[in-house]
Specification:
The chain is an alpha+beta fold and about 180 residues long. The protein has one domain (about 1-180): Alpha-Beta Plaits. Helices cover about 15% and strands about 30% of the residues. The strands form 2 sheets. Strands 1, 2, 3, 4, 7, 8, 9, 10 and 11 form a 9-stranded mixed sheet that branches. Strands 5-6 form a two-stranded antiparallel sheet. Strand 2 (about 40) and strand 3 form a beta hairpin. The radius of gyration is 16 Å and the shape is globular. The chain starts with a strand and ends with a strand.
Length: about 180
């Protein structure tokens, strides 16, 4: 079985909250009531978008393991307007504390169409411009996209995973899921 889920901001990419006693953070179980499926990869609590869930362990491994180089495409709202040099740095690979990233595909895009509102909204500042990038990577280090854009001087304001391989968010509202 394969499920595509549009994970909202603030939701944990797991079915239970193993945080502090008494905390009740939203989890996948608040949205998906299907037994024996597990997330193939993760999205941070403060990231949104496509999460693939499956009951097939081999498929889960192929999607999540960086050795298989499954492409993951993100829509990234960044602070400022990256110039050609910043975009080329992302394309060539970025030096992070845990080593050099693989090259990424990146391009500026208009704000994604029909984008759902985020709660809480991204902080808007009149004096600081922002723009959207479409960024595709083939590895999945912890908070990698955020660290890559920050390293080029353009911190991430909003991060939405649009695609994993050929699967996309198309037709899924925030918090919705469907079988693929």
């Amino acid at each position: 079985m394969l499920i595509l889920f549009n994970k909202p901001y603030g939701v944990l990419s797991q079915f239970t909250d193993k945080g502090t006693a008494g905390s009740k953070r939203p989890t996948l179980s608040d949205f998906i009531d299907v037994p024996d499926v597990y997330a193939a990869g993760r999205l941070d609590k403060d990231s949104e978008g496509l999460l693939v869930l499956t009951d097939d362990g081999a498929l889960q491994h192929r999607i999540a393991d960086p050795r298989h180089k499954a492409p993951k495409t993100y829509w990234v709202q960044v602070e400022g307007e990256p110039d050609a040099a910043a975009l080329e740095t992302l394309r060539s690979g970025v030096q992070l504390k845990d080593g050099m990233t693989r090259p990424a595909r990146v391009r500026r895009i208009p704000a994604p169409p029909a984008l759902w509102p985020r709660t809480p909204p991204v902080r808007f500042r009149k004096t600081v411009p922002d723009c959207w990038l479409e960024l595709t990577i083939t590895e999945g280090r912890n908070r990698q996209v955020r660290r890559m854009t920050a390293a080029t001087g353009h911190p991430t304001l909003r991060l939405i995973r649009y695609a994993v391989g050929d699967w996309t968010l198309d037709g899924l509202a925030s918090g919705e899921w469907r079988k693929a």
